[in-house]
Structures are given as C-alpha cells and as structure tokens.
Amino acid sequence: MSLNLRHSGILIASLALSVGVSAAGAYAIESALVHSESRVVHIAMIFGLSVAILMVLSVPVGMILRKQFQAFTRRIIETRERGTPLRGTCSGIFMPFAHAIDTLVEQYMEEFETVSNRVREAEIRLSVSESERKHYESILDGLNDAVIVTDTFNELTLANSAASQLLGFVREQSMHKPVQDLIGDRSIASAIGELNQAGVRSKQTHFEHTFNPEGSDEEEHAPLFDVTLSALPDENKSVGGVVTIFRDITREKEISRMKTEFVSQASHELRTPLSSINAYIEMLIDSEATDEENRQEFYQIIKTEAERVSRMIDNMLNISRIEAGIVKVERAEVDFVKVVKEVIETMAPSAKTKNIMLADRCGPLMYTAEADRDMIYQVIMNLVGNAIKYTPDDGRVTMSIENDDATRSVLVTVADTGLGIPPDAIEHVFNKFYRIDNYKRVAKGTGLGLNLVKHIVETVHRGQVGVKSDVGMGSQFWFSIPYENAAN
Predict the structure, then answer these.
(1) Would you say 305 and 276 are in contact if contact means Cβ atoms under 8 Å apart?
(2) What is the pLDDT of residue 219?
(3) Which of 351, 454, 341 is nearest to 396 (CA)?
C-alpha cells in the first residue's frame, strides 16, 4: 500500500511536472511567436529601407562607375599608344583588371610580332619571286623563239610574248590555266601532257610541226616550227613540269630548198656550155676542122661558151656575196647620165650587128645619187644587153633618166621594141635561172642577169625595180635609186 502510494505520488508528481513543463513550453512558444513576428517586421522594414536607399543611390553610383570605366578605357588606349604598361596608371578596384589586360596585351603583342615577322618574310619572298619571274619573262621576251613553261598539272606558269602571239592567248590572263584550254593545236597540248605523264626526268622530245592558220587547209605557206619539249626535274627528283620551245625554221627550210634548187639549176646551166666546149675541143683533137676557117669558127664558139661560163660564175658569186651581206660597196655621188653614155658606147658594136638604135633621153638637170658606180654600171649593162638580145633587127632601145622628187630617187628606164614578156612570166623574170622557154632559141643567157639586177638595186641600194611589158610591143625595165644612202 505504501509502495503504491509512493508510485502514485511519483506518478502524480510526474504528471504535475509534465503539466507544468507543458504549460511553460506553451508560454514560451507563445512568447517566441510574438517575438519572431516583430523581428520579421523589423527585417522587412530594414530590407525595404535598404532597397529604397539602393534605388536612390543606384543612379549616382552608376554614373560614377560609368565615368570611371570610361576613364579606365581611355587610359588603356593611351597607354597602348604610348606602349607603356597599364598597371602603373591604375589603382583601386581596377588594378586586377589592369594586370590582366597588361598580361593579355603582352601575349597578344608577342604573337602579333611573330605573325608580323612571318608576314613580312612571306612578302619579301613573294616580292623576290615576282621580281625573278619578271626577270625571266624579260629574258624570254628578248628571244625570237616562242617559249612556254607548264607545271605538273599541265597549267601555264611562264610564257614570253612570242609564244602568246604564236599560240593566240593573252599572257596576263592565262597564267595557271590548263594548257589544253590555251593552245588551239591539240597535238602540241597532247605532246606536253604525254611528256609530263611519262615521269622521266630530263627527257626531251623533238619534232617539226606546221601551224596552219585557223580554218585553212593550205600547208604550202604555213609556218614550220622546230618544237623541243624538255622535262624539268623537281625537288622529289620527278617531273616537275615541261619547257616547250618553238623555233621558226620556215626561212631555214626555204633557204635550204633554194640552195638545193640553185645547185641543181647551176649544174644544169653549166653543163650546157661545158658540153659544147668539150665537144668542139674533141673535134679539134680529131682533126675534124679541115681548114683554118673551120678551126677559127670552133675557136670562136669555144671562146663564147667559156665567156658564158665565166659570166655565170661571176654572177653566182656576186649574188651569193650580196645575199650573205659580205659584198664590198664603195658609195659615192654617181652621175647617172655619164654611166648611161658609157653603156651606150660599150654596147654600140652589139647593137650595130642587129642595126638597133641606142638612144638616151636625159634632160638638162643633174641626175645623181649616192651609190656604187660599178654596180650601177652593171645594172644598166644587163638591162641594155637583154634589150638588145630580145629585140629584132632594126629595133630601138631607149634609156631615159629622171628625178622622182616624190620618192627622192633617180629613176632609170630601159625601153625596147622587142618581143615582150608574156603576162604569166612577168612575176618570174627576176628569179634565178629563169628563162622564157619560147625565147631560149632567140638568145643565149644564164638566167642570172636580172636576178643580180634585183639584188643590186633592192638589197644593196634599198631601191626598187620592176617591168612593164606587152607581148609583141616591147618591154620597159625600170629601177630607182634613192638620192641618199638608205643603207645607213
């Protein structure tokens, strides 16, 4: 019982304490809630006041910060222009920014200097390469031969003006373009491509090629070129491009052909008088000339043919010297009237045998020009000699002289009343060894006299020569010599 009372007392006391604690806790909570409520109100009031203050101060503070930032920006620009660090001109809140900007600027300037040096080096190399290219082009432009250079892709990298004219492209607009698009002649473009693809260093291809005018099928007058293609080695010891050279050999081939024809014609022309000389000598040896009169006739024929051979050889030598440019010319003031009168005096016996009258028409003026007197004498002699040969008996050969002030030259004309020249032969009468077939029986000749006349007048004296003729009505050969030495 007492134990229960004790337990009951403890229980009651515990309950009382619990109630008391609960009551105290409820009061404390109530007090805390009241206190918290007033603190929240205070915090809200302080926050609102702070916001109000910040709102009031934000405008002037922003303006101050903006001005400082603008000043900081100007300081950055000024220090960069002077090349001085930014950090020594800043303090306060901008100091870390100044350090960071100086570091970035220094790194940028180092990189910029490196890049600038590389750019300058590249510009120098480009300038040197361009100068070398122009130098090479100048050298190539000085060549008469056409030259083009292509790379491994068959694109044009270099060409001279002769090549652009020959192949028909504009050099400045054609660099680094495929050669097959620039050259109309497909065979040349194909040859370049084949040599490039062959891959053999220092290989060379050589052939002759005719460039026909576009749309023309005539090969007779088309220029002939000697084409040389050479492969260029590159750094990897393979083919790095092709150099193509076009050398015009049209004139060389023509000269070679003319030389061959000349030798053939000269041999033929020499064979005739030599055969005649040999035949009459054999008849003399065989004593076929039974009396002195026959022997004298044979001697005269041999002498005439020998003189013919001699004249032919002299003419050939003179023509060759003139064509080679090694003839000796002695220029002086030549009186053409005196030369004509000397020719008339020399040729008078030949004209008399055919009863041909030799006459001259010279006015009272002076007819002089700077020329080689002996050559002018030879020209007039050849023209008068031909006129006498091809003029029938009782004919007339007239020489006239006049001054042509329009061309500032002396004009000499040799007119005859002879056989005349057929129209189809006029353009050939000045060619080597040319003789009109129907007239070969009329008179003997070498076929070199008129060619020598043409060379003396045109090549040596820079004059002009020509002929007018009607068959059966005679011919008029004329030539003009400039007053002054046109060869200088």
Answers:
(1) yes
(2) 53
(3) 351
Q: Residue length, the chain? A: 488
Pairing of strands 357-362, 396-404: parallel
For residue 488, pLDDT over 60 is answered with no
pLDDT tier at 56, thresholds 50, 70, 90: low
Q: Are 151 and 157 in contact (CB under 8 A)?
A: yes
CATH H-level superfamily of 142-248: PAS domain (3.30.450.20)
Tokens matching residue 127: 């300038």
Which CATH code of 3.30.565.10, 3.30.300.30, 3.40.190.10, 3.40.50.2000 fits the domain covering 331-488? 3.30.565.10
DSSP code string of 133-202:
HHHHHHHHHT-SSEEEEEETTSBEEEE-HHHHHHHT--GGGTTTSBHHHH-S-HHHHHHHHHHHHH--TT
460 close to 467: Cβ distance less than 8 angstroms: no
Is-above-0.90 flag for pTM?
A: no
Upper half-sphere CA count for residue 332 (Cβ side, 13 Å): 8
State both tokens at 487: 């060869």
Q: Are 237 and 201 in contact (CB under 8 A)?
A: yes
The domain made up of 252-327 has a fold known as Helix Hairpins (1.10.287)
Local structure of 206: helix, strand or coil: strand
Residue-level pLDDT at 201: 65
447: left (phi over 0), alpha (psi -120 to 50) or beta: left
Weakest mean pLDDT among 22-31, 178-187, 444-453: 22-31
Q: Other C-beta atoms within 10 Å of 228: how many?
A: 16
Residue 152, both tokens: 């491994």
Q: Kindly report the CA angle at 220 between 217 and 224, in degrees rounded to 5? A: 100
For 71, residues 6+ apart whose C-beta sits below 8 A from its C-beta are none
Q: pLDDT tens digits for 150-195?
A: 888 888 888 888 888 888 888 888 888 888 888 877 888 888 888 8
Q: Find where tokens 């009651």 sit.
A: 12
Average per-residue pLDDT for the chain: 76
Q: How confident is the model at residue 445 (pLDDT cuts 50, 70, 90)?
A: low
Confidence (pLDDT) at 421: 87
Domain with CATH 3.30.565.10 in the chain: 331-488
**What is residue 357's three-state secondary structure?**
strand
Number of other residues whose CB lies within 10 A of the CB of residue 71? 12
pLDDT of 57 reads 54
**Position 199 pLDDT exceeds 80:** no
* Token representation of residue 426: 């006029």
Distance CA 463, CA 376 (A): 12
What is the β-pairing status of strands 368-372 and 331-335? antiparallel
In whole angstroms, give the CA distance from residue 63 to residue 72: 14
